[in-house]
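Supplementary notes for students who missed Thursday's class. We covered one full example, reproduced here. Read the sequence, then the structure, then the short commentary at the end.
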Amino acid sequence: MTKKQKKLLTKIIVSGILFVGGFIVPYEWVSLLLFVAAYLTVGYSVIIKAVKNIRQGQVFDENFLMLVATLGAFALREYSEAVAVMLFYQVGELFESIAVGRSRKSVSELINIVPEYANIMVDGELTQVMPEEVEVGDIIIVRTGEKIAIDGIIVSGQTVIESSALTGESVPTEAAVGDEVLSGCINLGSTIEIRTTKEFEDSTASKIMYLVEEASSRKAKTESFITKFARKYTPCVVIAAAVIALVPSIITGDWATWVSRALLFLVVSCPCALVISVPLTFFCSIGRASASGILIKGSNFLELAAKAEVAVFDKTGTLTEGRFEVAEIKTYGVAENELKYYLALAESYVDHPIARCIAQLSNEGKDHDEVTDVKQLPGFGVSAVINGKTLLAGNEALMERNNIEYVKSESELTVVYAAVDGQFVGYVTVADRVKDRAEKAIFRLRKNGIKKTVMLTGDKEKIGRYVADKTGIDEFYAELLPDQKVERLCEIRQNGQSVIFVGDGLNDAPVLTEADIGIAMGALGSDAAIEAADIVIMDDDIEKVALTVEISRKTLRIVRQNIIFALGIKFAIMLLGIFGFANMWMAVFADVGVSVIAILNALRCGGR
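Structure (token representation):
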């Protein structure tokens, strides 16, 4: 417990003891003193707040309602009821404080990923400086157990890095010279030296901290509605209570009965259950998500994700690993090693994932001096002259364009055909491995109310069909350029369905922005993804897309439960109170009891 919570608990205990004493003592005047003492002990802070707010023109809030209701009860000599209202109201406040503190823990742990210092060498001595003082290109030293202060590349040392604070994954990863490391991660191994590649304010930890802090300011529509509702609701019930107290009393002359019912009406009407539980539900969910490595930029995005009906996916790097491997090599008229050598040399000049994969086929005896006249052929492949021989490597269209007779592969995977001096010499089949959890993720999305799943890819139709079949995707569209992906997404949205788009964050910024909800997959360290997406999954776990939808739908379900439950109980007790069938103890339950139940229900969003 915090000091503030302990202080409030102490007040509640002392007030409770005095309250019980008021029932036990046989003398009426002593009983009254004990009740007054109990009331002031627990209600002093509420009285002060109400008076301050009235002076500032903020009259109609829960403090005002509590003050009017309890002072009115004292005026009617219902001393025990007055103390009970204030006592249990503060019990509800304590529950709220504990609940908020508990749900804030996950978020505060994420914010604490930002290191307080960085180590640099100054005049041969290791010196701690503020991370803001480190410039791009400086060398920082990270010792065992310390947090990495700024994004950079390891230039000395080998270690093990824990990134659980960023990704939610507890398994550490090895890192060595040349590897990129991100701020907020913890160095579990030996001391390493890092050359910084960003300024502190642009580093991963700083960006995440900023987005988490900003998340609370982006309210969901339900949250905003409750806030507006409370502003109008409170003065309305005060006016209603005044009418209940005055009109029947003037007609019947029975002032004590109707004023008592009006005060009961005020106690019941306090909107605490809604004002507290609805924002708390969203806050708990954002904390739960952040602990799982899912960064949600605001409650509004959580609400939109809960209403999504269609999930649209990019292929490479999202449903697939994005790391290609050669699955098959087939030769015609040449040795396999020779084909590997030719292809590895030519593709080493091409900056493309498939080319980089093929370039690893042969690492022995590469002599780039033997390669001349390398040409990249967009949409077809590459050509190069190796030892005076012309190599063509690419797709079927490249072979047909050059009138080369070739043996067509029946594989549904990517095939790179090769020809030397116009003669077909073989092909290699390259596979982009489908993620192990992709099929399960699609199943979980359907289970959580997603009606249709779609894949958009720039790859060939047969590759798209292969991945769609492996993952259980409902529809796919292949051979799309980036602008065509946006067009296709707009067509899907024209049906009035709310759409989630999931991309790898590297080249999907336009589509992420266009979707109702953009989710960037495996975007840790990707500035474009963090800026464009509404929700960022910090690691490469595709199942967390389904987890995001699960959390969002559970959130809205609990919000609706609390709204229906709170308003239902309150309106029922209000009506019973107006007609004389409810007492102050029932009113206390309708206020504090309902608030506590709603808070406990909201906390379910923070559970795993």
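Commentary. Residues 118-213 form a domain with the Calcium-transporting ATPase, cytoplasmic transduction domain A fold (CATH 2.70.150.10). The radius of gyration is 33 Å. If anything here is unclear, bring it to office hours.
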